[in-house]
Amino acid sequence: MLEVERSKTKAPPLFKVLLLNDDYTPMEFVVVVLQKFFGMGREQATRIMLKVHREGVGICGVFPRDVAATKVELVTDFAREHQHPLACVMEES
C-alpha cells in the first residue's frame, strides 16, 4: 500500500533560469555571470552568452523553484551592483 502511494507522488516542478538579451550589458559580463552563478566553464558560458545575444534568450539551468528563485535574485542583484540592466527570469519547465 505504501509503495503505491509513494509512486503517485509527483516530483516538484522544475524551473528554467533564463538570461534575456539587452543592448547594454557587455558580453564579457554575461560570461562572468554564467561562470560565477551557474558553475560553467568559459567555453560553455561563452556559448550560452552568444545564444542570448543572437536569439534573445538563453537557458542557464533547470532547478527546483527555491533554487531558481535564489539564482534569479543573485544574478539580478549582481548585475545592478555593476550597473547593468541584465534580466534574469525563471519559468516552469
Strand order of the largest sheet: 2-1-3
Order of helices and strands: HEHHEHE
**Major beta-sheet overview:** 3 strands, antiparallel
Radius of gyration: 16 Å
- The geometry reads as globular
- How many beta-strand segments? 3
Q: Report helical residue fraction.
A: 40-55%
How many angstroms separate the termini? Answer: 31 Å
* β-strand amount: 15-25%
| Low-confidence residue ranges | none
Mean pLDDT: 93
Structural class: alpha+beta
**Number of distinct helices:** 4
What characteristics describe this protein?
about 90 residues, 3-stranded antiparallel sheet, globular, alpha+beta
How does this structure look, described?
The protein is α+β, with helices and mostly antiparallel strands. It has helices spanning 2-8, 27-38, 42-55, 65-81, and strands at 14-20, 57-64, 87-92. The chain has a 3-stranded antiparallel sheet. Helix 2 (27-38) crosses helix 3. The chain is globular. It starts with a helix and ends with a strand. The model has no long low-confidence stretch (mean pLDDT 93).
Quick description:
The chain has 93 residues and is an alpha+beta fold. The protein has 4 helices and 3 strands; from the N terminus they run H-E-H-H-E-H-E.
Any chance you could write out the topology, listing elements then pairs?
Blueprint: H1 2-8, E1 14-20, H2 27-38, H3 42-55, E2 57-64, H4 65-81, E3 87-92
Antiparallel strand pairs: 1-2, 1-3
Helix pairs in contact: 2-3
